[in-house]
Design a protein that fits this description.
There is one protein chain. The protein is mainly β. It contains one helix and 28 strands. The strands form seven sheets. Strands 3-2-1-28 form a four-stranded antiparallel beta sheet, with no helix packed on it. β25 and β26 form a beta hairpin.
């Protein structure tokens, strides 16, 4: 009986692990995944699970954005590429590569209002740049005045940007409209993950050394909320309705979920041995895609139920990830 119970327990554990999940039903569009070690991007049809194309990037692609219409995707080639790779998603091709040797180690990237430009951190030069990804023109370059600007967050109107500066334990506040550095805010040690609400009134920042996620007022710099018990809060994602926050922890191999309005923690999804990294939303605002660099796959997760719905295989060491509503198959 003891052996039988052990066998049943092992079977239940196996069935509960996300690595055995199947492709979920009902999803439509195209998933785009950057593979850091492969120096390329996978384009995956969500309905069939078919890998439609694998396109080259510059070396070491890390972060990715996709326009709302699904037509364009732009990656930062951080690990030696010193470039942006612009993908024509509709035609599954590399449209252009934008040389950023003057602003090396580009990492954090977000779309600006109008979606003709992206705002990008240059970690090596501690600079925030705005680039027209259709022409390659660098429209603005603003010093963050602090070391190691890694990730970027931007208010919905595009006027205020925030950078996480891991080398100085600060967040820089930049007025994009006037191209001015405003101030720096001291935050817990080794900030990396960062996001903001649409108004720009709250800065959500993950600190790797102090192992916390903090919510800070951008106006008076007061601490709104803070959660401990992390090891490497790799990214922070707010849903479009600003109801939920999702935080993958790279070292603890889990994902933690929060009510972003009440600032209460909802629960944790354990993902042993997976090394979760990049996270992005599906169109329903309740489903996320999560790249697993330790298993070369992407999980699909229901935010409300905190449940794995399925998975897709990727290339080598997936990180940055994006969703396009275009159905290409």
């Amino acid at each position: 009986m003891k052996e039988l119970l052990c066998a049943v327990g092992a079977t239940i554990l196996l069935l509960s692990l996300p690595v055995n999940a199947q492709r979920p039903d009902g999803l439509r569009g195209t998933l785009i995944v950057l593979n850091k070690q492969g120096h390329d991007a996978n384009f995956i049809d969500l309905a069939s699970g078919e890998r439609l194309a694998t396109l080259p990037t510059g070396r070491g692609p890390h972060e990715l954005v996709v326009t709302d219409d699904g037509r364009w995707a732009i990656s930062t080639d951080y690990g030696g590429g010193n470039s942006l790779t612009v993908f024509d998603v509709k035609n599954l091709r590399v449209e252009r590569t934008i040389d950023l040797r003057r602003y090396p180690r580009p990492h954090g990237i977000l779309l600006m209002p109008g979606e003709q430009e992206v705002i990008v951190t240059s970690e090596a030069s501690s600079t925030l740049i705005v680039v027209n990804f259709h022409t390659g023109e660098i429209k603005l370059a603003i010093s963050t005045r602090r070391n190691s600007a890694h990730m970027v967050a931007v208010s919905a109107d595009g006027r205020t940007a925030f950078t996480s500066n891991g080398g100085s334990d600060t967040v820089s506040v930049v007025d994009v409209g006037s191209s001015d550095y405003v101030k720096s805010i001291d935050v817990p040690d080794s900030p990396e993950a960062i996001t903001t609400n649409k108004s720009g009134s709250e800065i959500w920042v993950g600190s790797n050394t102090d192992e916390v996620v903090s919510v800070i007022s951008s106006q008076d710099e007061s601490l709104v909320a803070q959660w401990s018990g992390f090891a490497w809060p790799y990214r922070i994602l707010l849903t479009n309705d600003e109801r939920y926050a999702v935080v993958p922890d790279l070292r603890k191999n889990n994902v933690r979920f929060f009510n972003a309005q009440s600032k209460t923690e909802l629960g944790t999804l354990d993902l042993p041995g997976t090394r979760p990294e990049g996270v992005t939303l599906y169109s329903d605002d309740l489903t996320v895609f999560l790249s697993l660099s330790g298993q070369n796959k992407v999980l699909v997760i229901d935010i409300v139920k905190r449940k794995v719905l399925g998975e897709y295989k990727t290339g080598d060491s997936p990180d940055g990830i994006g969703y396009s509503k275009l159905e290409l198959r």
